[in-house]
Design brief:
This protein has one domain. It contains ten helices and four strands, in the order H-E-H-E-H-H-E-H-H-H-E-H-H-H. Strands 3-2-1-4 form a four-stranded mixed β-sheet, sandwiched between helices. Helix 5 (89-96) packs parallel to helix 8, helix 8 packs across helix 9 and helix 9 (173-181) packs across helix 10 (198-211). By secondary structure, the chain is an alpha+beta fold. The chain has helices spanning 7-14, 30-33, 54-70, 81-84, 89-96, 115-118, 121-133, 143-164, 173-181, 198-211; strands at 24-28, 43-48, 86-88, 136-141. The chain is globular and about 50 Å long.
């Protein structure tokens, strides 16, 4: 039986948001969808206006690792914490505007499950984009920045889907969903764009297509 989402763990995670940064904190992954197991790692993203220096980033990472140890959770460092745990508002804005997809624009982007690839700047922006467009829990912080960046990412999801469809006109909802859910070579999930919950992706694209105003291709 899947354990219930633990408010205590999420409240502790919320309390780790660096103060006075003007950012926000999100939990995503299995704990956000209720599909976690008792030892599943907790996926977290913290944001702020300015970069954290090395000392503060190490302190935040150590606090997140300690939270996992206290609650008997596994650690997942396939993507290093230095890459995935904290982002500036500018980086989140770039991610929401599809900067992570520029190297492969118009073609299904590659995903290589190796540290060298998962540590690149472009993959980092793709990961942030995925967080904004998959199920997640808002843990606190700057709600205005959060709402603005999620809305931008949802519009961008429609743009990304259009770039991956075979025709120039706006894609149908089904075409957009198919383009983001599965690559032409059959890759899905973490081997493609990371989408694991089909109904949520439909919801994201419905809002994005409704809200989207045509923009030039990157």
């Amino acid at each position: 039986m899947t354990p219930a989402l633990a408010p205590t763990i999420l409240l502790e995670a919320a309390g780790l948001l660096p103060p006075d940064t003007g950012g926000y904190a999100l939990a995503y992954g299995s704990h956000a969808t209720g599909t976690h197991q008792s030892t599943s790692d907790l996926d977290l993203l913290y944001t702020g206006r300015h970069p954290l220096d090395d000392v503060d980033l190490r302190a935040l990472t150590a606090a997140v690792v300690a939270l996992h140890h206290r609650h008997g959770l596994d650690l997942d460092e396939e993507v290093p914490y230095a890459v995935k745990l904290y982002a500036t508002g500018d980086q989140v804005g770039q991610a929401a505007a599809l900067a992570g997809f520029q190297p492969s624009w118009g073609t299904p982007p590659p995903t290589v499950r190796e540290t060298w690839f998962l540590s690149t700047g472009h993959f980092r922006l793709r990961l942030i984009f995925n967080v904004l467009t998959t199920p997640h829990v808002f843990l606190g912080g700057n709600i205005t920045a959060y709402q603005s960046q999620v809305r931008c990412a949802e519009r961008s999801a429609a743009v990304l889907a259009q770039s991956l469809t075979a025709h120039d006109g706006p894609p149908t909802l089904q075409e957009a969903w198919a383009a983001l859910w599965r690559a032409p070579d059959g890759r899905t999930g973490k081997d493609y764009l990371g989408y694991l919950v089909a109904p949520h992706l439909l919801s994201v694209l419905t809002r994005g297509l409704t809200d989207h105003h045509p923009t030039p291709r990157l």
